[in-house]
Sequence to fold (249 residues):
Amino acid sequence: MNPSDYIKFYDRVGKINGWDFSNVKCVSEGIKWDFYNEVMKTCKRSDILLDIGTGGGEAILSIAESALLLVGIDQSTGMIDTATKNSAKSGVPNVRFLKMDAENLEFPADFFNVISCRHSEFFAKEIAKVLIQGGTFHTQQVSENDKSNIKEAFGRGQAFGTKAGTLKHQYITELSEAGFSDIQSFECNVIEYYQTAEDLIFLLKHTPIIPDFGRTEVDFQMLQQFIKENQTEKGIRTNSERFIITAKL
Fold:
C-alpha cells in the first residue's frame, strides 16, 4: 500500500467508524498499560494537550477532565468529521478537533504542556517546536512483529520483513536529535483471541495490517486456513505488539 492508497484507505475508515473498534469482540492477555491512562498521569488540570492522529476522537474525549483544553488533529477529513460528531454527542466542552498534518503543526511555539500520539506518524522537530520547555511527549506505536502469525499466513503485511525494533530506534534517535531528554521506552506483546471470524474480518478490513485485504477471493481462502490453524477454545489466536516512548523536552 503506497502513501496515496493509505491516505484514501484511512479517510474511508474515518467516515465509516472513526477508528472505533469497540464492537469487535476480542479477549487480551498480558496487557501492561492503557496508553491514555499513562498520558493522564502527566496532565494537570491547567494543561493544554495535543493529540496527534486523533482518529475519531474517542480517546481524548474519554480523558477530557484531565486537562484544561484538549486538541485533536488528524490528516483525514473523514476522521475529523467523525470526531466532530462524536464531540457533539458527548457534550464535552473543552475538546477541539482540527484537520492538520503532523508534518506541519500550525500552532504557536511553546503552546502545549503535553503531546500524545497513538499509532500515527509524528515528526520530532515539529513536536519540539510547539511543546513547552519541560513538557512531556508520549507515543504508542505498532511494533514490527504485531499480528505476526497473520502476516506470515498471508505472506505480506504492515512492516512485514522489517527487523524488530527498527521503528522504535528511529523515533528515539529523532527525538534525541530534536532536543528531547529522559527518553524512556517500554514494550508489550499481548496475546489476543478474536471471538468470531467476523470480528477478525472487521479488523483486517479496517486496518492496514494486511494491505488491500479482501480484494480477491484468495484472501478469504487464506483466512479460512489461518482460522483453522489458530482456532482455540478462547478464540482465534494472534498477538498485539506495541511500544511506548515517553520523552521530556
